Amino acid sequence: MRSQRNRKEKNNKNRKIKYTTTKTYSLKKKPTPSPQPEATTQSEDIFQTESIFEPEVTPDVTVQPEDEAQQVTVQPEDEDQPEVTVQPEDEDQPEDQEVTTVQPDDIIQPKDKIQEKDIVIQDDTPQPNETLQPDDTPRSDNDGYPVFRDFQMAKVKVNELSGLRLSQNEDFVWGVGDSGDLVKFSLSIDNPNISNEYSYNDKKSGKDLEGITIYRDSEGPNKDLLVCKEPNYVLRIREEATGKYKVETLFEVEEAKDFGNDGIEGITYYKDDIVYLGSQKNTTLWKYNIKTKEKIEKILLKDVKKEITEVADIYYDYDKDRLWLLDSEIFTIFILTGDGKEYLKKYNLKEIIEDIDNPEALTVDHKNGVVWIGCDTGKTSRLYKLNFENL
Fold first, then answer.
1. Cβ distance 277 to 297 under 8 Å?
2. N or C: which end of the chain has fewer CB within 10 A?
3. Phi, psi (5° rounding) for residue 114?
4. One domain, residues 333 and 238
5. How far apart, in whole angstroms, are the C-alpha atoms of residue 114 and residue 22?
6. What is the pLDDT of residues 161-194, one digit of tens each?
7. Do residues 51 and 63 touch, judged by C-beta distance below 8 A?
């Protein structure tokens, strides 16, 4: 909001001060040094002076106020008074009467005519910004990106919750944990626990499930789930007609096999049979073709945005062609372009939820204007429902 002081400063930009001199002046260049005193150049801040010239004036030149002998001062106008545009009062004055600028080396010579002039005071001081917005704080204006409003939290009985994804029909949220749990959450934060669907454990490669997404093949969505398992595995979980789940390993990411606990943490389906895979180590983002099991591209996200330190989870937004990225190390959500090569926006979760701890899971629900965040806080994890506008 603009302050009273700012409005008054704006009204003082144009002021009309009248003075009547007993002489008018013309300027001539001094050919040789003269004992006569030189005219003193006034400071740019004319509001701090009481007259146009310095107090020491030659005997032949006197400056008289127009009416009574009183100092000329600028009084701030009322807030609601409109600005005054100053025009010369005497339009019939001779054309040869001009307002000139006094230079330090010019000598002022008096003439015999009396002239009355209006002085327009221009204030070129930059006006302060009306509102200062922190660059990284979600703003209330419609800048094309989601605007955070409020949140709710619930504790859920999932050991080390590490991945979330909205279901195909958008009627519940899938979740996975480090202990191999596959669970369903309702969309009601008051009672989010529905069921523990499946418990995965491979005796050879372990059970550390980290991310989950919906498998959309070239013909559209289906019921298959794609899950990433640390350090470098991509699994497919398919629900059979009997209601049981079948798990198979689709492929391994060779570059991440030695990443250990800093391996693949996030997975999201992109398009055209391509998935994104993100790792904690080196902020790496891979594109893989699910059907051919071939690597298409590798992107170092720290080259896209230097602040990114790791990938805890990722979500591709089909509606707006944006890639959401969760960095648990610095408690920040980043929004990138759909190809993952350009930074768009970020949200510091500590500014939204002061006591948030170890956020490792993220998914977006456009229909309800919600971003779901899961926090790995041990045997009992935390589930946050962040309400946004313009999501």
1. no
2. N
3. -105, 135
4. yes
5. 6
6. 999 999 989 999 999 999 999 999 999 998 887 7
7. yes
> What burial letters (b/e) apply to 324-363, b meaning 16+ CB within 10 Å?
bbbbbeebbbbbbebebeebebbbebeebbeebebbbbbb
Q: Which of 132, 155, 174 is the last residue of a domain?
A: 132
**Residue 18 tokens, joined:** 């009248």
Residues whose CB is less than 8 angstroms from the CB of residue 170 and which lie 6 or more positions away in sequence, other chains included? 365, 367
Exposure string (b/e) for 242-277, b if CB count within 10 Å is 16 or more? eeeeebeebbbbebbeebeeebbbbbbbbeeeebbb
> Any idea what the CATH number is for the domain that residue 253 is in?
2.120.10.30
The tokens for 179 are: 């202990």
234 shares a domain with 115 = no
Supply the pLDDT for residue 195.
84
**For 201-239, what is each residue's pLDDT tens digit?**
888 888 999 999 998 765 555 679 999 999 999 999 998
- Report CA torsion sign: 175, 181, 182, 188: negative
Q: Which residues of 91-129 are buried (b: 16+ CB within 10 A; e: fewer)?
A: eeeeeeeeeeebeeebbbeeeeeeeebeeeeebeeeeee
pTM of the model: 0.64
Phi and psi at residue 210, to the nearest 5°: -120, -35
Tell me the pLDDT tens digit for each residue of 55-86.
Answer: 444 444 444 444 444 444 444 444 454 444 44
